[in-house]
Amino acid sequence: MSVRPEEIDRGWVEPSPVRTGFVPTQAEPVVPLMNIANILTMLRIALVPLFVLALFAGGGHQTGWRIAAAALFGIAAITDRFDGQLARKYGLVTDFGKLADPIADKALIGSAVIGLSVLGDLAWWITLVICGREIGVTLLRLVVVRRGVIPAGRGGKVKTLVQSVAIAVLLLPLHGGFATAGMVLMYIAVALTVLTGLDYVGQAARVWLAGVPGRTRGA
Questions:
Q1: Residue 26, class by beta-carbon neighbours within 10 Å (0-12 exposed, 13-18 middle, 19+ buried)?
Q2: In 3D, which of 177, 181, 137 has the Cα closest to residue 156?
Q3: What is the model's pLDDT at position 81?
Q4: What span, in angstroms and rounded, lies between the C-alpha atoms of 66 and 62?
Q5: Chain mean pLDDT for the chain
Q6: CB atoms near residue 210 (< 10 Å)
Q7: SS3 labels along 51-62
């Protein structure tokens, strides 16, 4: 068999690798259900009945029990501050957390304002506005969830913060200027509750009509 000159001059060529069409994929890490974020959320839920018992102990106006109730409420509110941050920072977001976290928030705030109204320390119309808004927002989420998602924003977080501070002040056995400051904070919280609720209604309407995810400043 004869060899052509051009084949001699071309030299040796490395064979190209065989392409199999297989591209390895990295499996998503499995987030354990019992992580620090979910534990804090469950702790907040567990503190709600203890808080209610302390609030109504001793007739509801005994100094020691009111301080204990305020302390339990404060601890529960602090867990709300950290569980979401930890979940996002360390990738600990779970379906359980998405469901349990808002339930814990509404249970804590709702039990506090209802309890204060039962004891005569908070007007019922304020409690109805706060609880009605939360129920309405929850129902709206269920209605528009198939057309889009309206994430919580800064307005909702500010609203929750002001509500928590106002409730904590009203829980303490304070008088005079401190009690007045607590009511002023509560009126501000009510205004934020209404404004963020109306904003949510508008965003939900746009998501429903457009069928695309929306974005809101409050939740």
A1: exposed
A2: 137
A3: 77
A4: 6
A5: 80
A6: 11
A7: HHHHHHHHHHCC
C-alpha to C-alpha distance for 92 and 129, rounded to whole angstroms? 33
8 Å CB contact between 92 and 86: yes
> pTM, whole model, 2 decimals?
0.76
d(CA 68, CA 198): 35
The amino acid present at 173, given as its one-letter code, is P
Structure tokens at 13: 């060529």
For 152-201, how does the pLDDT look when each residue is reduced to its tens digit (9 = 90+)?
667 778 888 899 999 999 999 988 888 899 999 999 999 999 999 898 88
Q: Spell out the residues 6+ positions from residue 208 whose beta carbon is closer than 8 angstroms to its own.
A: 143, 144, 147, 148
CA–CA distance, 184 with 188 (Å, rounded to integer): 6
Give the HSE-up count for residue 86: Cα atoms under 13 Å, Cβ half-sphere: 16
Q: How far is CA 51 from CA 15, 37, 77, in A?
A: 74, 21, 12
Looking at residue 168, its amino acid is A
Separation of alpha carbons 148 and 84, rounded Å: 22
In the predicted model, what is the mean pLDDT of residues 118-139?
93
Q: What is the DSSP string of 94-135?
A: -HHHHHHHHHHHHHHHHHHHHHHHHTTSS-HHHHHHHHHHHH
